[in-house]
């Protein structure tokens, strides 16, 4: 009798533990995904430009890829326009959430260049990205691709506007307890949100994202904000966010000095609209001019719409940042941000791409 009761009790508690675990794990699966569709803590990608002078069969859809489980860049197996690409796999979770109309999942998609619109909004930040999360965890994708992604009802696609030039991005998986900090960073970035759903269950902790989603004018926006963030697996990041009232070059005036490192920056710099390499302040900023893919393969920064920087070789404090803004005088007037890490593999990967950068006082 006693044994029977014991057995029943055990069975019930097993069932409860199992259901409990399933409930948590089932809800916890929102994360960055690799090309196999497996959850990864973070990944970064570098979509390669389509070089005009080459008859190499480049489509402008190939990319380099690095994640928390690999150690160096890999050439993608898939083209960026397929649902099996790393962005396709990761965004699949957005389409599932959208279709289920689940009221415990939230998303926010923003881009200064809205899909299928000819207008680029200057009213909002020069910032592009996507967040998808529930009360357990989610991911933040920060990227440079104009007019990407399409609204969720249209499913996955990669726009022609992202094809010719190089593009960069990073996806990081965060536990829900990081979202309050992200909420404040996003406010400062002043994103142009073109698709979103933030159910009421989040409105207590997250103040700004529901307002951004409703395009309600917000409370006072700080000039700049810096926060530490930690990925679900414990990788540390620093996020710099500047508003349009911080009227300066984010790299020279803030990031290099704060990170205490000389930075090599790769951004979209059109001719006669570039801020030169800058050695005025204690920590310098140098413009990268050419990217090397291998000993025989390289491309010019004029073909690159990516936005990233990395510590100069040989200096201490080895940082790498990926984000929103270019080294152009006009970008002082725009909001946007960068996410930075001291992860060794990310540093090695980006450092390895630098072929040539301009020193200060160099006129050619
Ligand atoms: C992706 O782009 C390639 C090269 O342009 C094209 O052949 C292919 O049909 C595209 N695939 C999809 C799913 O759009
Ligand atoms: C949202 O969740 C609440 C509480 O679980 C439930 O009562 C409600 O029906 C849900 N709404 C929708 C639209 O699914
Ligand atoms: C683009 O901007 C112009 C001028 O501001 C406006 O008239 C037009 O409606 C906008 N088009 C779209 C698609 O938003
Ligand atoms: C270097 O950058 C700082 C901060 O933006 C700026 O004040 C300074 O004028 C710049 N120096 C040169 C030579 O452009």
UniProtKB/TrEMBL annotation:
Q: Which organism is it from?
A: Rhinopithecus bieti (Black snub-nosed monkey)
Which range is the signal sequence, renumbered to this chain? 1-27
Membership in a protein family:
Belongs to the DNase II family.
What is this protein's name? Answer: Deoxyribonuclease-2-beta
Q: Which keywords label this protein?
A: Endonuclease, Glycoprotein, Hydrolase, Lysosome, Nuclease, Signal
Function comment: Hydrolyzes DNA under acidic conditions. Does not require divalent cations for activity. Participates in the degradation of nuclear DNA during lens cell differentiation.
Major place of residence: other
Q: Which InterPro entries match?
A: DNase_II
User: What's one Pfam family the UniProt record gives for this protein?
Assistant: DNase_II
């Amino acid at each position: 009798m006693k044994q029977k009761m014991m057995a029943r009790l055990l069975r019930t508690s097993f069932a409860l533990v199992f259901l409990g675990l399933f409930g948590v794990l089932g809800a916890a699966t929102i994360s960055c995904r690799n090309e196999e569709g497996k959850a990864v803590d973070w990944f970064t990608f570098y979509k390669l430009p389509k070089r005009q002078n080459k008859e190499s069969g480049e489509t402008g859809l190939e990319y380099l890829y690095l994640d928390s489980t690999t150690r160096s860049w890999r050439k993608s197996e898939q083209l960026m326009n397929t649902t099996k690409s790393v962005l396709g796999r990761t965004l699949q979770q957005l389409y599932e959430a959208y279709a289920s109309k689940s009221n415990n999942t939230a998303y926010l998609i923003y881009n200064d260049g809205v899909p299928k619109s000819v207008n680029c909004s200057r009213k909002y930040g020069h910032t592009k990205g996507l967040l998808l999360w529930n009360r357990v965890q989610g991911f933040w994708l920060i990227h440079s691709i104009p007019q990407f992604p399409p609204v969720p009802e249209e499913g996955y696609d990669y726009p022609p506007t992202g094809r010719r030039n190089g593009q960069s991005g990073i996806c990081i998986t965060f536990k829900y307890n990081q979202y309050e900090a992200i909420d404040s960073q996003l406010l400062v970035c002043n994103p142009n949100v073109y698709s979103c759903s933030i159910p009421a269950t989040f409105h207590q902790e997250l103040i700004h994202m529901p307002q951004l989603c409703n395009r309600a004018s917000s409370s006072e926006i700080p000039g700049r904000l810096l926060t530490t963030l930690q990925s679900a697996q414990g990788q540390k990041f620093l996020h710099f966010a500047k508003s349009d009232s911080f009227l300066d070059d984010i790299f020279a005036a803030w990031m290099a000095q704060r990170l205490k490192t000389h930075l090599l920056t790769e951004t979209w710099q059109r001719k006669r609209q570039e801020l030169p390499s800058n050695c005025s302040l204690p920590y310098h900023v140098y413009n990268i001019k050419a990217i090397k893919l291998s000993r025989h393969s390289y491309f010019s920064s004029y073909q690159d719409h990516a936005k990233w920087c990395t510590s100069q070789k040989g200096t201490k404090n080895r940082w790498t940042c990926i984000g929103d803004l270019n080294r152009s005088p006009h970008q002082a007037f725009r909001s946007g941000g960068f996410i930075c890490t001291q992860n060794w593999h990310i540093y090695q990967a980006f450092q390895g791409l630098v072929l040539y950068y301009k020193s200060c006082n160099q006129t050619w």
